[in-house]
Amino acid sequence: MTEAVPTVRLGDGLTVSRIGFGGMALSDVYGDSDPGEALRTLHHAVDQGVTFIDTADVYGEPRDGVDGPAGTNEELIAQLLADRRDEVQLATKFGITGEVGGAGGSATRGDRAYVRSACEASLRRLGIDVIDLYYLHRRQLDIPIEETVGAMAELVAEGKVRHLGLSEVTATELRAAAVVHPIAAVQSEWSLWSRDVEARVVPAAREVGAGFVPYSPLGRGFLTGAMTPERIAGSMLRDEPRFVEHFAANQPVVDLVRAIGREIGATPAQVALAWLWAQGEAYGLPVVPIPGTRSPHRVTENAEALRVRLDAEQRSRLDEAAELVHGDRNLSFTTKGWISADREEAPST
């Protein structure tokens, strides 16, 4: 039986479970999924105390004749919320107007009219009156971020949104946004093999009082050793050098995580998650990873990572894993500027 999952306060007074659930894994981007099994996994997560559920309007399967995000992942999660809304802290996102993993995946909008229409569409699909945490998924680079966040702040004033978040923003963008409205959370990729945010974004989040929500905390499954060439070939990662061309070269990272797991009686996933929480303590800000899975068993495994403790020597060895990584975290279907590292200024020396 999993011990009760504790809560933690992010920024702006938002309290969530110490580990969240990434809903994107329940859609077809990582291969075919079964809606019934997906809903059972969601209910199991909440049963375990993993009540911070993350989705986005762009997650899910495209529909013929639908212009923009189809929102099928939000519709799936709406079935959970219909019975358990009061138990869930719900986060969703807007801003990407093309299919994730598709040719139009890099298209973005952040104008005031779109902010409002996207929020209304998400509320309708989710079947709720208010979104707990509303993220700008990707900013439209030719619109000042202050303008987009200003439109989001109007939604808070109107009671349609409780808290604001930003995904894949630079430190400069985050500071500018926080002047307009408090930012509860920054969501960016952060894991043992994706650490660029530590240079500037993580310190900026601490500075403005935002929490950090790492997505893909298990390296899209690679750090667990579960990603085989066959599984990769059937997912949106099939053209990604880090997973395909460098598959064998990156196995030493997996071997290191496994070795430390054997030392402390933990799975590779639990080691990777424990390392992230330790990083949050080192940087002085709340960190709430949102691993995704289709398996109730994995939900339990991930939640039990909260019991795992790494000593200084183990953390030091894991810190060195970054030097073993081949390939960067950019995805082939995106354009330059898609992740914060593309736009981030070099750290001053």
Automatic annotation (TrEMBL):
Domain of life: Bacteria
UniProt domain NADP-dependent oxidoreductase: residue ranges: 18-322
Protein name, per record: Aldo/keto reductase
InterPro entries (alphabetical): AKR, Aldo-Keto_reductase, NAD(P)_OxRdtase_dom_sf, NADP_OxRdtase_dom
Pfam families xrefs: Aldo_ket_red
Entry keywords, A to Z: Oxidoreductase
